Amino acid sequence: TTTTLHGYAPICLGLEDFYIRRLYLRIQDCFGRPISSAPDAWFDVVERYSNDNNKTLKRTTKISRCLNLGSYNYLGFAAADEYCTPRVVETLEKYSPSTCSSRVDGGTTLLHNELEECVANFVQKPAAIVFGMGYVTNSAILPVLMGKGSLIISDSLNHNSIVNGARGSGATIRVFQHNTPPHLEEVLREQIAEGQPRTHRPWKKIVVIVEGIYSMEGELCKLPEIIAVCKKYKAYTYLDEAHSIGAVGKTGRGVCELLGVDTADVDIMMGTFTKSFGSCGGYIAGSKELIKYLKYTCPAHLYATSISPPAAQQIISSIQVILGEDGSNRGAQKLSQIRENSNFFRSELQKMGFEVLGDNDSPVMPIMLYNPAKIPAFSRECLKQNVAVVTVAFPATPLLLARARICISASHSREDLIKALKVISSVGDLVGIKYFPAEPQKQ
Ligand code: PMP
């Protein structure tokens, strides 16, 4: 396992480049007979994540070294890190990969308590609870917090884990137009009168759920305006920071820090460790009472195996680096690098004539393809030139709003980005997805 940790990313995936092996499948019918008329299928699997210039892998025609523009490895921690990896390995030796127990049945180590304290401090809330999976954090928490007689008002583009959690809660669900505070207000006004005390209205609780950075749009949440509406109607706010925590803000503390929002104004802060921290799992942070309540009642805390200790250590160590507690300024450098990389890449794509969604500072940048039929050609041609991009289409996006979703990392070098821009530009010409005139090049 230790070798794997060094060879692959610590616990989860990512890094600025990686290797892809193409697997060929013989398509067979249910009795194992080849279906002769069908071509053999293939799919690509990630062979190895590495930053070591391919010292250990023999190059064959089936393995290509790719620049990875698809992973959520925003700060580059999902690769062997000089500070994090030795501590993760030490934890692995000390605690093993799994506690094999739920939090309440012996699955809470000192590390789990330290992690919860560390996360609460990082996101600037009084307390936090952690879970082994980000998806489960949303889908298991919402049914504990909300139920019949409660109202969830959800952004129309919220992640599937939120949608599933909301549906599973049994609460009434209303959806407001994506990132549109005036429409949120309209939806709230249909349900309650402005200023009505919580005790005098038809809903036990009202929660408004938004994301910090929308993963398919690359947009920053209009959080200050959303909070103003929530305060006016005394609704609770639930903020999913999966893509913003660690990635934006002067000290990496997410959209609240970036947009100047007091964290006291967000009632429930949720996030995942699978992006900026290069690990796995998720958290909920809030008041001490809220977290205590969740620890007593949430089935995913009571009945699921606790987060893996090496994964927990990876989160603690990466937060220490972000905050400069490792004694270096690598954290600050990573934060300014991701901002610089993101803004450079976004503006260059726009100059080339692509339609790019999202806001400045956001490392998520969807390039609009619109027609889903353009997806295979776009990703195949990029991959041919060793640039790996993620393309997304229905049902993750509306049917005719297919896109290539680029995720920028602090560990991309300027040369990486320039190479990627050249490839994307030529593929964009080939596939016909430059919808605006390109800016003239300066001589
Ligand atoms: N929330 C959002 C907004 C997400 O984008 C994701 C997944 N990318 C999740 C929750 C689930 O997180 P995880 O992949 O860590 O389970």
Automatic annotation (TrEMBL):
Belongs to the class-II pyridoxal-phosphate-dependent aminotransferase family. One of its GO terms (molecular function) is serine C-palmitoyltransferase activity. One of its GO terms (cellular component) is serine palmitoyltransferase complex. It holds the Pfam family Aminotran_1_2. PROSITE patterns: AA_TRANSFER_CLASS_2. InterPro entries: Aminotrans_II_pyridoxalP_BS (IPR001917), Aminotransferase_I/II_large (IPR004839), AON_synthase_class-II (IPR050087), PyrdxlP-dep_Trfase (IPR015424), PyrdxlP-dep_Trfase_major (IPR015421), PyrdxlP-dep_Trfase_small (IPR015422). It is a single-pass membrane protein. Residues 66-424 form the Aminotransferase class I/classII large domain. Keywords: Lipid metabolism, Membrane, Pyridoxal phosphate, Sphingolipid metabolism, Transferase, Transmembrane, Transmembrane helix. This is Aminotransferase class I/classII large domain-containing protein. Its main location: endoplasmic reticulum. GO terms for biological process: ceramide biosynthetic process; sphingosine biosynthetic process.
